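As the work plan foresaw, the team has encoded backbone shapes as discrete tokens. One protein thus recorded appears below exactly as we store it.

:::
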Amino acid sequence: MALENNLRFSEQQRTSFSQKPMPQTKISNFNLDSISKYIPSTKISMFLLFIFQIILLILIVNPPNLLSQLNVVNVINDVSKAAAIPPTEVPVVAVIGDNKILPNIDDLKKQDQFTAEVYKDAQNGDYVLGYTSKMIIYRVSEKKVIYDGESPVAKQTKLQKDATNAVVAKVKEVGLITSDSTETPNLSVVVDEDKVKESNSSFYTNVQKDDIIATFPDSKLLVIYRPATKAIINSGKYTTVVE
């Protein structure tokens, strides 16, 4: 009897246990969503790791070059605030006196009159930014533009073009060549008048420093032109002797 009661009790317990609902664990979607926002995807993580490795490699292999490039970027940005520059053009940048592109300032000024004129107020350590249409000299220590204008080459080219046009116009005016001539002379500027006179004292008797000697190869014409007075000092034909 006792055994039967125990069995009945056990069956009742089993029934009550089976009818009792099991507790369920509820996970909040809100919490998962909020956490997922701060967990980057695998692709993003790999990309960031790749970028970090490249930066680390650059710093290890060539840190001075990287710092130099950063300085150049800063200089370009500073210059763009102080002067009008071509917005879409990346300039050629050099430092006076670093002997990579430009020598020291004293050697620069000795090159020619055009270079001396452009660099007259510059000093070693100044940055030079070369654009297609202009050149800028910038001093970082003072955050100041030292020069903003044509490059020495551009100045020389312009002067040669203006001088050529002036000589040709004057030679046509006095009838030494025809008005419809398209001949372009070769020009040279007298630097040492005494040496020029030594080569032909009779022809170059009145030559002076800064006079232009123009040679017209097709017409075999030699002309001395004085820019200061816009006058032809002397002219004559010449022959070429082949030995």
